[in-house]
Amino acid sequence: MILVTGGAGYIGSHTTVVLQQAGYEVLVVDNLSNSEANVIDRIEKISGKRPAFEEMDLVDTAKVDALFTKYPIEGIIHFAASKAVGESVQKPLLYYRNNLQSLMNLLESMNKHGVKNIVFSSSCTVYGQPTEDNLPVTENAPVQVALSPYGNTKQVCEEILRDTIYAHENLQGVALRYFNPVGAHESALIGELPIGVPQNLMPFITQTAMGLRQGLKVFGGDYQTPDGTCIRDYIHVMDLAKAHLIALERFMKSNFKKRFEWFNLGTGTGSSVLEVIQSFEKMSGEQLAYEIVDRREGDIEQIWAETTIANEELGWTSELTLDDMTASAWKWEKYYNEVLKPQAEA
Question: Which InterPro entries does the record cross-reference, listed alphabetically (predicted)?
Answer without folding.
Answer: NAD(P)-bd_dom, NAD(P)-bd_dom_sf, UDP_G4E
